[in-house]
Design brief:
The structure holds seven protein chains of seven kinds. In chain B, α2 packs antiparallel against α6 and α3 crosses α6. Chain B is mainly α. Chain B contains six helices and three strands. Chain E is an alpha+beta fold. Chain E has two domains: 31 residues; 97 residues, Alpha-Beta Plaits. Chains in contact: A-D, B-C, B-E, B-F, B-G, C-E, C-F, C-G, D-F, E-F. At the A-D interface, α1, α2 and α3 of A face α1, α2, α3, α5 and α6 of D.
Chain lengths: 108, 165, 372, 175, 147, 333, 177
């Protein structure tokens, strides 16, 4: 197995997907701003989609299935981004901060 | 000025220097920057009758970052002087200054004893490369000023000299 | 300019237009408080070309102040020449020969055409159209050629003298002026087709920057700005001077008060200027161009005198105070754009940035005249 | 052994580069203090993911990834940052000290677990293909097998539009 | 609705008319005077900086050093000096310096001169790298001109 | 089997970059000449014959100009942004068929790919404006993006109409369908297509931030827009990207509507015709720029929502009807 | 019209109200008011549709204000200025500042009114009219710039034409740069 042949191995994609997922989770916990968390969540979604795509490419009898799932994830992600951002802006308007802790504090 | 500092950065290589100078001299982009009366003549120079574009110098850029030459066209008041200085500082090297009109050269007709409002000449603020006297100078004089500046950059003059008759 | 400093209220921010900004026609600074692209508050900051004209008036003799008047409003220098010689002649009781008065009117109106042409170009440039500026300049060059052939300069004319003119004109000038008017008559339809009727321009100017007549009165706005708001006032007709009473012209008035109305007033004024010049050329009498009894050293009787003329931008008023010596004691220059601009702060409230700049362009600013 | 100077070799090299871009972008995205920078990282990472999709025989999804994520989602987020910028100085030093190691631990643990799971599982070999996954096939399945989901997604998007409009407008009228 | 279509058609037409005008001017000849290669002729009244006028025969300046021009000048750009040689009737000009960088080209000096000793020059395209080049020694210029 | 011809691709990419650079340079020259003659002046003339060396001089000058990174900006964003504008433009060229053979990568979804890369371009503008730490640049970037997003809708609807008509997203395929005489071009495919072409053209003007939709660079309002703070080559790269985008917009219009490299008379090779058509459209773009004043953002959005989108939807609907319903009525297969 | 105006002014101010020779002076009515009547005069004129053309100051350092003497004006119309000068010389010098408001109107018969107000040079202060006439705002600021005259109640008297940090008043006769 050559290092140049990695693109044909399912496990590599799974590992990358896992890494993206892990980075996303790390970001979710690490970032303190709502937008930062949104960015991390996009990474998590990207990891999940990559899994779908990889399985679809290597295992599924019908390769369209994974692609369609990914497309759906994109649609949901776009909707999620739009909603999340309008929430963020609304929150910001009300509390003049997008820091998660500030929001929590002000609610009480 | 301006040239020296750049030359130290680039390895001295005569043909290259010459090429760079040629490029710069033929692509002098002025700043959209008029202070007073002379600015109108500056606009007239860019207009159809005189057409500064023939020398590639009609690209008036409104942002100092993209300009090569600052045509100080008009009276610099003391209130304006810091802003003019800032604009000059914001221009990237190599840069040149043309003082157009008597006000920019020496304060012109607005100099009198006890004046409180104007800077007596652009060269009090920063080095000036070409002076164009007149109140205001005719557009031909501004073109002549651009040609003078090209001569200064490249070291020789490509265009015939026109003697006034 | 480089810091993104936000004001106290987080929703708004301060945008500093100028002092060097393409839209301000020179060096005017406007502090804009913006909410997004909406102007919340606009505060013009003046004085960047303050050239001490009023102080210089006190330091120079009456005759020596002449070149200064040309540099106040360099686009309509002859109107200012006219205002100044008029007030001094009024104080001294100098009678000006008729030919000189006719020539004054002709040159002033030609100068007004040049000024309006430049405004037309610059205004469309503010709105993003570049080509009309160059067409206007093309025509303007012809006026300037004419004026240069009599006055010797292209911009800062210093042509009028107390009691008359610097020198007489020749037949070439008369013929040239007629030819120019013919040429401009041919060109104006192109201007209108290219710009006035353009849907983009109409959309940008119609109902934008509406100034009410009352607002103009409160701020002392004059000239095309006032006439664009439906007030029929023109110094040339309401307070006749020179030979204007003998000439037949209309004062264009538009009632809408929006930028389009101000635009139309100026465009119509170009046509009226051409009518005036034509009539004046027809009626141009023979005779001397300088009054005979003009004292060598002027010493107007003590007292203060006021006089106003209609400059291209509005009423140019000049108040002189003489103490009977050969230098003015006080010289107050009332420039029209100073008052016209002062309403910008109130008028631009709540407007979009491009619309506010269109409004500013339609006020026809010449900054050195404001700053003096 | 594949030589570097064949088509496949070059493709392999490009693949490695794309993986690096993906991971690097993701790391920039989560580690940046400045949000605009984080967004740039995210965009870079998405471009990388699009490249991976391309390698997975799906140029269509790759292009859609660019179109939707880079062109729409990232731009929307930048807009949100512009509208609600907390300013850099405000955020520096406000990160709790325990947060970072814990977050790193959780992330690393998840990665380790998932990767192990993925690599150690014996995946069944690919069954016989019923289609080759071309755009035509995707379109076909979208309106046949997955028709219902397709409709649902459009509903979700519609709701998202209305919802964000309502939210944004509510904030606006208040100010 | 009819307003909508009216505006749409009217607007489109106005845009087309605008394009027609620019293309019309595009095919017309240019009006540029290509300055260094060709140039406009200055009008006889063109005001350049002032120049001393010499006697046509002798070449000596007409100036009688009365100082009227100096007094008339609003911006003090003229400074002249003269001396009265032994036995001569008139003062003779020794130096006539014009600081053109302060001049406003108002023409008051020429107007004030009763002896037609100064006139406007035709220099319309002055430009140069040195500021002091525009402090003219007019007497020297006159001498150079007359040979 | 993925990258079957990497070397060919590399050569093409190099060629495209050279093409873009040369084109950008000479389009600037052309623009200045066109502007000059429209305004009855000459334009660049003295530098080389007909001013042909003018772009060279400008290029040399821009390259030797000091690159200023103003204080207070994020250097990474500031430097990446121009590339984000240029690189997608280069990538878009990969799928554009200059002639039947002269195409870097004949991808089945080429049309979609161009739009995907065009959307990255938006990101470049946004980051350039945001990264400059200059209010004018930020406003300009926001404007440019809202305009791009607004005009993507009618543009994509028009493109969908085209896809319905052609049944393919492969650009070369689309051109091949238009073989034959001029009447086979898609612009004459049905009576609605000229309007569709107009909509597409207007949208591509707006997408490339050209006058009268150049709100992002509105000189009289926003100094120089999102590239206010860029000097030297940073500005040059923005410029190149902009002109590359113009070529792509006009090229796409040519491919979709004007028969791409198809020649109506059978003389001269295909790429010649393609370029001739593209340059004609580019001339129109310049002609428009030097004729009209600028719109405002609201005027722009009004145009998009009130005129372009309804019309493009109508065309989509009618075209769909024509394709599906018409055969049913006439009984043809 | 002019008479009505004169009557109204007469009820407002007891002191000199001069109808001037328009052809010679350029304005019709010359009213002198005290600092406390400036606003009332503005109100009166504003009600009658006048607009403010300009505000200006005159510094009469060591001189008697000239233009206020009816004899001079009546006697000198259209002539040279010998007698007026003599008149001025005889008046005792007083250190005064003067603020002149030029009113004009756009409707009806032409009528220019100059309202002037004398102030003590040591303490030049008078109420602002900018609340009534917003256009006066800049004129007053400018007058403050040039003469240091304080318009009490003015919203912002920071320098308008002079640099922001200027603390000099250049049109005062004792100003030295």
């Amino acid at each position: 197995m050559s290092i140049l042949n990695l693109s044909n191995i399912l496990e590599i994609y799974l590992a990358i997907a896992a890494l993206l997922f892990g980075i996303g989770v790390y970001g979710m916990l690490y970032q303190r701003t709502l937008i930062g968390m949104l960015i991390s969540s996009e990474l998590i979604l990207a990891g999940a989609s990559l899994n779908f795509m990889a399985f679809s490419r290597f295992l599924a009898p019908d390769p369209t299935t994974g692609q369609i799932f990914t497309l759906f994830i994109m649609g949901v992600a776009a909707a999620e981004a739009a909603i999340a951002l309008s929430i963020i802006i609304a929150v910001y308007r009300n509390y003049k901060s997008i820091d998660t802790e500030d929001v929590a504090g002000l609610q009480g | 000025m301006g040239k020296e500092s750049l030359q130290s950065a680039i390895i001295r290589f005569a043909p290259l220097d010459k090429l760079l100078d040629l490029g710069r001299a033929n692509s002098l982009w002025p700043m959209t920057f008029g202070l007073a009366c002379c600015a109108i003549e500056m606009m007239a120079t860019g207009a159809a009758r005189f057409d500064l574009a023939r020398f590639g110098a009609e690209v008036f850029r409104p942002s100092p970052r993209q300009c090569d030459v600052m045509i100080v066209a008009g009276t610099i008041s003391k209130k304006m002087a810091p802003a003019v200085q800032t604009l000059y500082d914001q221009m990237p090297e190599p840069k040149w200054v043309i003082a157009m009109g008597n006000c920019a050269i020496s304060g012109g007709p607005f100099v009198f004893e006890g004046q409180y409002g104007i800077v007596e000449g652009a060269d009090k603020l920063f080095p000036v490369d070409v002076f164009i006297p007149g109140c205001p100078p005719r557009p031909e004089a501004l073109i002549e000023g651009i040609l003078e500046l090209e001569e200064k950059v490249t070291g020789h003059r490509r265009w015939p000299r026109v003697e006034a008759v | 300019m480089n810091d993104l400093a936000r004001s106290q209220n987080q929703e708004t921010f301060v945008l500093n237009l100028g002092p060097q900004h393409p839209a301000t026609h020179g060096v005017l600074r406007v502090k804009l408080t913006m909410d997004g692209e909406y102007v919340v508050h606009a505060e013009p900051v003046l004085g960047y070309v303050h050239r001490m004209h009023e102080k210089m008036g006190e330091n120079r003799t009456w005759a020596q102040f002449m070149p200064n008047t040309a540099r106040l409003d360099y686009l309509g220098a002859l109107s200012y020449n006219h205002g100044y010689v008029k007030v001094v002649e009024q104080a001294m009781g100098i009678e000006v020969p008729e030919r000189a008065e006719y020539l004054r009117v002709i040159t002033v109106e030609l100068n007004r055409i040049a000024s309006h042409l430049l405004w037309y170009g610059a205004f469309v440039l503010d709105l993003g159209g570049f080509t009309p500026l160059l067409y206007a300049f093309d025509d303007r060059e012809h006026v300037l050629d004419l004026l240069e052939s009599v006055t010797g300069s292209r911009l800062t004319f210093c042509y009028f003298r107390f009691g008359g003119l610097y020198n007489d004109v020749d037949d070439n000038f008369v013929g040239g002026a007629r030819a120019f008017i013919k040429r401009l008559r041919r060109r104006l339809p192109d201007y209108h087709n290219l710009v006035t009727k353009n849907i983009i321009l109409i959309k940008r100017l119609k109902d934008v920057g509406v100034l009410s007549a009352e607002m103009c009165r409160k701020y002392g706005a004059t000239g095309p700005v006032l006439r664009g708001s439906g007030v029929d006032y023109d110094v040339r007709r309401n307070e006749p001077y020179s030979v204007y009473p003998e000439l037949d012209f209309e004062v264009p008035v538009y009632g809408e008060g929006d930028s389009m109305a101000r635009y139309m007033v100026r465009m119509d004024e170009i046509e009226q200027c051409m009518r005036i010049v034509e009539q004046a050329l027809d009626k141009l009498p023979e005779g001397p161009v300088v009054a005979e009894k003009v004292p060598k050293i002027l010493k107007p009787p003590p007292g203060d005198y006021y006089s106003a003329v209609e400059a291209a931008r509005g009423t140019f008023g000049i108040r002189i105070v003489s103490d009977g010596t050969n230098t003015p004691y006080r010289m107050k220059l009332r420039s029209p754009t100073f008052s016209n601009l002062s309403l910008f702060g109130e008028a631009s409230r709540g407007m979009l940035l491009p619309d506010a700049l269109a409004l500013m362009g339609s006020l026809d600013l010449v900054i050195p005249e404001i700053d003096r | 052994m594949i030589s570097l100077f064949t088509a496949e070799g070059l493709a392999g090299l490009v693949f490695l580069f794309i993986v690096a871009v993906t991971i690097g972008g993701a790391l920039i995205a989560v580690n940046s203090i400045r949000l605009p920078r984080a967004i740039t990282g995210l965009a870079i990472s998405f471009v990388g993911v699009a490249g991976l999709y391309y390698f997975l025989n799906s140029p269509f999804v790759a292009v859609m990834e660019m179109l939707i994520y880079v062109g729409a989602v990232c731009v929307t987020i930048v807009f949100a940052i512009m509208l609600a910028d907390p300013g850099d100085e405000q955020r520096v030093g406000r990160r709790s000290a325990i947060g970072a190691p814990v977050a790193f631990g959780v992330g690393a643990l998840l990665f380790w677990g998932l990767a192990l799971l993925g690599i150690n599982t014996m995946w069944p070999a690919a069954a016989a293909r019923v289609s080759d996954g071309s755009v035509k096939d995707i379109g076909h399945s979208l309106v046949t097998t997955y028709g219902m989901v397709f409709e649902l997604i459009s509903l979700v998007l519609l709701l998202a539009i209305i919802g964000s409009l309502v939210l944004a407008r509510a904030g606006r009228s208040k100010s | 609705m009819s307003g909508y279509f009216k505006e749409l058609f009217g607007g489109t037409k106005s845009l087309a008319v605008g394009l027609g005008i620019t293309i019309k001017y595009m095919v017309k000849p240019v009006v540029t005077v290509q300055y260094p290669h060709e140039t406009l002729v200055m009008t006889p009244r063109f005001r350049g900086h002032i120049e001393l006028v010499g006697n046509e025969e002798t070449g000596a300046p007409n100036c009688v050093v009365c100082g009227m021009c100096q007094k008339a000048c609003p911006s003090n750009c003229i400074s002249l000096a003269g001396e009265k040689p032994e036995g001569a009737k008139k003062k003779i000009l020794t130096s006539y310096i014009l600081d053109f960088t302060k001049c406003s080209l108002c023409g008051l000096c020429v107007e004030s001169c009763k002896f037609e000793a100064i006139a406007f020059s035709r220099d319309y395209n002055l430009a140069g790298p040195r500021k002091d080049a525009y402090v003219f020694d007019l007497k020297k210029r006159l001498e150079e001109k007359s040979g | 089997m993925i990258l079957s011809e990497p070397w060919r691709l590399l050569v093409f990419v190099a060629g495209i970059i050279a093409f873009i650079a040369l084109n950008a340079a000479y389009l600037v020259w052309l623009e200045r000449k066109v502007a000059g003659h429209i305004q009855r002046r000459i334009g660049p003339k003295e530098v080389g014959p007909f001013g042909l060396l003018q772009p060279l001089a400008d290029g040399i000058k821009l390259m030797s100009k000091q690159l200023l990174v103003p204080k207070g900006v994020d250097p990474l964003l500031f430097k990446v942004a121009p590339l984000l504008v240029l690189v997608p433009a280069v990538m878009s060229f990969v799928t554009i068929p200059f002639s039947e053979k002269l195409v870097a990568r004949n991808i089945d979804i080429g049309l979609l790919m161009i739009f995907a890369f065009a959307s990255v371009n938006v990101m470049g503008l946004l980051l350039g404006g945001w990264g400059s730490n200059n209010k004018y640049a930020v406003i300009s970037a926001a404007r440019a993006v809202s305009q791009n997003v607004a005009y993507e809708i009618p543009m994509l609807i028009t493109v969908v109409t085209m896809i319905m008509l052609t049944h393919t997203m492969n650009l070369n395929e689309i051109v091949i369908q238009q073989a034959g005489g001029v009447w086979n071009w898609h612009i004459f495919a049905n009576p609605l297509m000229p309007i569709a072409f107009l909509i597409f053209f207007i949208c591509s003007l707006a997408e490339t931030n050209r006058a009268p939709f150049d709100l992002g660079e509105a000189e009289s309002e926003l100094i120089a827009g999102f590239h206010t703070e860029y000097s030297g080559m940073g500005f040059g790269v923005f410029f190149m990207g902009e002109y590359a985008n113009i070529i792509i917009g006009c090229g796409l219009a040519t491919i979709l509507f004007l028969g791409g490299w198809q020649c109506p008379f059978g003389i001269l090779p295909g790429w010649w015709w393609f370029l001739a058509k593209v340059y004609f459209l580019i001339f129109c773009v310049m002609w428009i720029r030097w004729t009209y004043p600028r719109t405002t953002l609201w005027g722009l959005l009004n145009l998009s929502w009130k005129i372009l989108i309804p019309f493009s939807l109508l065309i989509l609907l009618l075209t769909g009807a024509m394709i599906k319903v018409w055969p049913l009525i006439t009984g043809a297969s | 019209m002019l008479d009505e105006l004169k009557n109204e002014f007469a009820s407002l101010v007891p002191v000199p109200l001069i109808e001037t020779d328009y052809r010679f002076k350029g304005y019709h009515l010359d009213v002198e008011v005290g600092p406390d009547q400036v606003v009332a005069a503005a109100e009166l004129l504003d009600r009658r549709g006048f607009f403010l053309e300009a505000i200006t100051g005159v510094d009469w350092l060591g001189k008697a204000p000239l233009s206020n003497q009816p004899e001079v004006e009546a006697g000198e119309a259209g002539e040279g200025g010998g007698a007026g000068k003599a008149e001025a010389a005889t008046a005792p010098p007083t250190d005064k500042m003067e603020v002149v408001y030029d009113y004009n109107r756009t409707v009806g018969e032409l009528c220019r009114v100059a309202v002037r107000c004398r102030l003590d040079r040591a303490n030049p202060e008078l109420p602002t009219v900018s609340r009534l006439i917003p256009g006066a705002n800049w004129h007053e600021r400018e007058t403050h710039d040039f003469f240091g005259i304080i318009f009490s109640g003015h919203p912002d008297l920071s320098p308008l034409l002079l640099p922001e940090d200027a603390d000099f008043h250049p049109l005062r006769k004792d100003f030295k740069a």
